[in-house]
Design goal:
It is a single chain. The protein has helices spanning 18-37, 59-70, 91-101, 115-125, 140-154, 178-186, 206-219, 229-233, 253-261, 270-275, 296-299, 306-325, and strands at residues 48-53, 74-78, 104-109, 130-135, 162-167, 193-197, 223-226, 238-242, 281-282. It is α/β, with parallel strands linked by helices and 329 residues long. The strands form 2 sheets. A 5-stranded parallel sheet has the order 7-6-5-8-9. The chain has a 4-stranded parallel sheet with strand order 2-1-3-4, with helices on both faces. Helix 7 links the parallel strand 6 (193-197) and strand 7. The chain starts with 17 loop residues before the first helix and ends with a helix. Helix 2 (59-70) crosses helix 12 (306-325) and helix 3 (91-101) packs across helix 4. The protein is globular. It binds phosphoric acid mono(formamide)ester. The site of phosphoric acid mono(formamide)ester has 9 residues, from helix 2. Residues 57-60, 134, 142, 285-287 line the site of phosphoric acid mono(formamide)ester.
């Protein structure tokens, strides 16, 4: 198995081969065992990760920072206002300078049609790996943790499973589209049939749908889009109902919230779960807007694996950091 990953950017899992992603899962499983046993695994001693958050975070911030500590290194928790980014310093200067000081740069920047471009610009000038902590297009660490969780539940051979990504109505704020986009692109590569269920105004970026279709075709699996949540849940082994904004239709916040409020019935409750297979698991990347997106009964119920999913962020990201910031060149 190919293991020469030192220095490789992780902007999207789409740019990593399946074999490379398998290596991440192998290492993540091992690091999870080490963590459970209290066995030291200091693969990045004295190394530094710069984390730049343009947007809020609970899981990503804390799993990356805790992960760096556990690997023997240190993470700087940065926001644009702590840096000269807030005074207009460009990506070239930021990346060039931080590359001189440390061993990796991780970025969250979800602004629509800006975030990914900024991360790509950093990558152009960085001498150290760039890790995408979520942008407007991709959330690769999240979906790798999701797939790790699915493999734990169903086994490593995931071919033949049906996964449904369903939109839900969460009117408290407009969320990025990066989670559903990364899900529909990644899962077919691992033999999983994917259904995307959403009202028409919540269509994803056309280029990500085209990539999802191409991945499904190459893997010989199904990828379908429906506009009915119940139809989407039929025969599903895995359901991931979560909200996102109607960003391909409007980037105006008020218009976006009005469209989200138009579909209050798009909620995951126990009746909806009964439409999926009996053994189906409920997943959500969190934060969930309880009682809008999902009822407490479902998210706190026996089919929910949301905390395993959140925990696996730590293990997957430690694997990514160990392989790209340490490992072999
Ligand atoms: N799922 C996720 O990325 O959570 P945070 O926004 O809290 O980092």
């Amino acid at each position: 198995m190919h293991s020469l990953l030192r220095g490789k950017h992780f902007i999207t899992d789409q740019e990593w081969t399946r074999e490379e992603l398998e290596m991440v899962f192998e290492v993540a499983d091992e690091l999870k065992r080490d963590f459970a046993l209290g066995r030291p695994h200091r693969y990045l001693p004295d190394k530094t990760l710069f984390m730049i958050f343009f947007d809020n975070s609970t899981r990503t911030r804390n799993s990356f920072e805790a992960g760096m500590t556990q690997l023997g290194g240190h993470a700087h928790d940065l926001t644009p206002d702590k840096l000269q980014i807030s005074h207009g310093e460009n990506a070239k200067d930021t990346a060039s300078v931080l590359s001189r000081y440390g061993h990796g740069i991780a970025v969250r920047h979800c602004a629509y049609r800006e975030g990914n471009q900024y991360i790509r610009e950093l990558a152009k000038y960085s001498r150290v790996p760039i890790l995408n902590m979520q942008c407007d297009v991709y959330h690769p660490c999240q979906v790798m943790a999701d797939l790790m969780t699915i493999r734990e539940r169903f086994g490593k051979n995931t071919r033949g499973l049906k996964l449904t990504v369903a939109w839900t109505s969460a009117p408290n704020y407009v969320r990025p589209m990066s989670v559903p986009q990364s899900l529909v692109m990644l899962m077919p590569r691992f033999g999983i049939d994917v259904t995307l269920a959403a009202p028409k105004e919540f269509a994803l970026m056309p280029e990500t749908i085209a990539q999802a279709r191409a991945n499904a075709e190459e893997a010989g699996v199904k990828f379908e889009i429906v506009d009915d949540m119940e139809e989407g849940f039929q025969n599903a082994d895995i359901v991931i109902p979560k909200s996102w904004g109607p960003l391909t239709v409007t980037t105006n916040k008020t218009e976006g919230i009005d469209l989200i409020k138009k579909y209050p019935g798009w909620k995951c409750d126990s009746r909806m779960m009964s439409i999926a297979k009996k053994h189906a698991i409920y997943m959500h990347p969190l934060p969930a807007d309880r009682n809008y997106e999902v009822t407490d009964e479902v998210i706190d119920g026996p089919q929910s694996v949301v905390y395993d999913e959140a925990e696996n962020r730590l293990h997957v990201q430690k694997a990514l950091m160990a392989l790209t910031m340490g490992g072999r060149g």
